[in-house]
Amino acid sequence: MTSGPGDAGFADGDALAKAAQPRQFIVTLYGLFSRGHGDWLSVASVVGLLGELGIDEAAVRSSISRLKRRDVLQAERRAGAAGYALSPAGRAILREGDHRIFRRKRATPADGWLLAVFSVPEAERHKRHLLRSQLSRLGFGTAAPGVWIAPAHLHEPTADVLRSQGLHGYADLFRADHLAFGDLAGKVRRWWDLDQLEALYSAFLTEHAPALDRRRVTGSRAFADYVRLLTDWRRLPYLDPGLPEELLPPDWIGIRAAELFFALQDRLEEPARAHGTRVIGG
User: Fold this and answer.
1) Alpha-carbon distance 138 to 158, whole Å?
2) Which residues partner with 142 through β-bridges?
3) Which residues face 150 on adjacent strands?
4) In Å, how far are 103, 118, 215, 226, 229 from 269, measured between CA atoms?
5) 270 Cβ neighbours under 8 A, 6+ residues apart
6) Which residues lie below 8 Å from residue 102, measured CB to CB, with a gap of 6+?
7) Helix or strand or coil: residue 151?
8) Number of C-beta neighbours around residue 273 at 10 A
9) 3-state secondary structure of 179
10) CA-CA distance, 267 to 257, in Å (whole number)?
11) pLDDT tens digits for 101-139?
């Protein structure tokens, strides 16, 4: 569908309680609809669909321009209509997001870990900052200075991102097991900010749990609910990269948040896509 901070430059990655920005909704629309229309959407379609979420045209056009400047979208006219297509970078980011956002399986301790060990010369410290930013965006925790850790299933997207950013020459990736010493669950709490994650998951549940109590919705209501759901959810699998349940606090709130997301996805996706497709088709 789409990507998250997140979002490979699409989202700020901060508290879920902050209102989503129009550009984040635009990315959600492109994830849902553009790839069924040649990776392209007309400006009129984007304006019309986001108008159903209460976002005005000026904000939509401004946000599209920002995504163009970030080389996520490219201006392109088709059949006389003004619109924007996904750039190659935008397509790659959405492919990565598909795997991350809709992954239902959590890692287990037996799966092992991915270690990223890097060393950057002082003369290129800007590369060090970029490397840290990319690893953080991918969901790595910090085990020690210059040593970052994540569940092993992230090895392919990590390698892809480091190559695409020209950072692979500064880092080594290792598969590892935790063999001895210390309480691994306690270490996970230090390596990742579980208190922040708990607050974000709580905000997600508060915002979207009421949708389960509604009768089955269709049309514009299903579309608006689903776009908001996806936009809020897609940041979370990057901050919590499928950490093993065995190493998380009892009754981890992230499990309940994921169950809510997938239950609502099952309920809302079909009518939301149908409504969006009708609007895009004019």
Assistant:
1) 7
2) 148
3) 114
4) 16, 41, 15, 7, 10
5) none
6) 1
7) strand
8) 16
9) coil
10) 15
11) 999 999 999 999 999 999 888 888 888 889 999 999 999
